[in-house]
Design goal:
This protein has strands spanning 2-7, 18-25, 35-42, 59-61, 69-70, 81-84, 89-98, 105-114, 121-128, 135-143, 149-157, 160-169, 183-186. By secondary structure, it is mainly beta.
Length: 194
């Protein structure tokens, strides 16, 4: 199994933002032979705690006529997806980040790759946050066998009720960009009360 975690330099444990990866090779016959390996994977800088709404704790995503919403900061969202396509292995993942330095929540997404058993590295990464003032959070990401990536997420803002949207990219698109036009899957019709 592979276990992934975030390590934001703002937490004071590292000098630069990074992912942490643990691989576990389990020997079911003799657990003493189980091997756990840890590597740090450098990334572009990120801030895992965008907090734009006043209030308590993590309830930081604004919405009209209501308290802030918990955007689930500081963790990798949903499930990281693994693919082995023969020439390489890939893992895609996402989490929220301060997209503009002013506490606007955007989706930081990454594709990790490993070729021929070498170390995992960041193949591409980007922050999805169109210039519309809306917060994007609680994402889900997946990759198909051709390398196309889909990204779905919640969206909310001071004048936009919470809803669901998605975007994506084709395998041949410029690295680090979600190039598919954003689609509204579910338009919000009211605020989230709890």
């Amino acid at each position: 199994p592979i276990i992934l975690g975030l390590n934001d330099d703002a937490w004071g444990q590292v000098d630069e933002d990074q992912l942490e990866m643990w691989t576990v090779s389990i020997d079911w016959d003799d657990p003493n032979n189980t091997v756990v390996t840890n590597i740090d994977i450098p990334t572009a800088p990120f801030d895992t705690n965008p907090c734009a709404a006043p209030g308590f704790g993590f309830a930081c995503i604004p919405q009209p006529n209501g308290n802030g919403i918990d955007g689930l900061p500081e963790v990798i969202m949903n499930q990281s997806h693994y693919r082995n396509v023969g020439s390489h292995e890939s893992i895609v993942l996402n989490f929220i980040t301060d997209a503009d330095g002013n506490e606007l929540s955007g989706i930081r997404w990454m594709e990790l790759r490993r070729v021929n058993g070498s170390d995992w590295t960041v193949y591409q990464e980007g922050t999805y946050a169109p210039d519309d003032g809306l917060h994007r959070f609680m994402g889900g990401i997946a990759m198909d066998g051709n390398g196309n990536i889909a990204l779905g997420y919640s969206v909310s803002g001071l004048d936009e009720f919470p809803g669901l949207r998605f975007t994506g990219r084709r395998a041949g698109d410029p690295l680090g960009e979600m190039t598919v036009e954003e689609y509204i899957a579910v338009a919000g019709e009211g605020n989230v009360g709890g």
